[in-house]
Amino acid sequence: MKILYASSEAYPYAMSGGLADVAGALPKALRRRLVGCRVVMPLYEGISDELRANMKFITSITVPVAWRRQYCGIFEARYNGVIYYLLDNQYYFKREGLYGHYDDGERFAFFSRAVLEIIPYIDYTPDIIHCNDWQTAMVPVYLDRFYKHDPKYADIKTVFTIHNIQYQGKFGYEIISDVLGIEKEDSSLVEYDGCVNLMKAAIQCSHKVTTVSPTYAKEILTPYYSHGLDSILKEYEYKLCGIINGIDTAVYDPETDQNIYANYSATDFSNKKINKRELQREMGLPERSDVAVIGIVSRLVKHKGFDLVKHSFEDLLKNDIQVVILGSGEWEFETYLYEMSKRFPMQVAYKTGFIPSLARKIYAGADIFLMPSQSEPCGLAQMISLRYGTIPIVRSTGGLNDTITDSGDGKGNGFVFKTYNAHDMAHTVYRAVEGFKNKEGWKILVKRALECDNSWNNSAGSYIKLYKELLSK
Asked: How far apart are CA 95 and CA 35, in angstroms?
């Protein structure tokens, strides 16, 4: 079985979010299970010289983009035993950042077509092309409309994974002929709700549709979570399933992580208190072992729950707690948290942006990790915090619901609230802080968190089962 994993980003080459982590970890986990898996992605300007030095040029081809043909250089690299194909076109990809350009529709139409065009040149004919999010949504469409009659492509199946349904690849009708290059009679494939919607086209044309947690697969069938796609998802519900993401437990390992202040493990986590003390020192907070430190590493946006945080923050600070926040996002929340750090310097430390090494220090040094999301397709932060023995507070939505259970029953691994409400969130924070004061009980909970298995092993097995079912039909 051979899988070609098509992604607009992948660790370690280009990263903007959780998709890069998945594209870096799942292929490696599949290979450990003796499944052939290679990754194809764009060759972005921001890829480091160190990584470029290990790339080998294979050949160059031209790729159809509607009425024109564009250069595509094919480079090959190996990382952690996985082969990556990086596709070069300086006009499309020699730019700052991965997304947000005026011609993103054209850039990723080119990439989607190139994924199929390179197959005769890479000595690797996949059984399945696994596509991810709207940037690769045209792969199933192009395969079905332009390639299925070619014997080299006739047996290839497609899987399309929705990592976040909020981002659907919406554009004006004018790109249908000028950019996408599909026939007029096929335009209905990409038309939806008054515009071009590439994710809708992939749902319709792919053989299987997955999303990144079982709960999210159910949620997106409802208008509240679907961002307008519930009707099309209900029509093709027979294709849909949810498989929870995992984390790379070799990358996130408190026993070997060189980013944290002191290493520890599930069998001996006494050094976790060193990480707490050094985090307090680095962030300018009083060095106290008896105070509960709540960590937040997140994009500061409403759907991550920061309207709840803002509503209840000053009341929470009436308790004996410290809060360490790393993130950037909407101006409203950045400004508010900055002001809180100045008003309450003994309790609140805020650092803007995303600093990977500091994120690891927060995962290791905090006692509690707050993640009150309005929606969360899967979430990796709650699994990473467990890996470092930091207890999550989450709202039961999406992947948070599938990975965190409330410790009130003596068996859970975190603290959970259900209603998207600031008072419910605050009450759950109070419960966690009270739990922290019970030192013996808290040690049991920390050990339980450290022993949770959120590796890719189980998830990779679920994908292999899905692939086999698809190929048996």
From this structure: 34
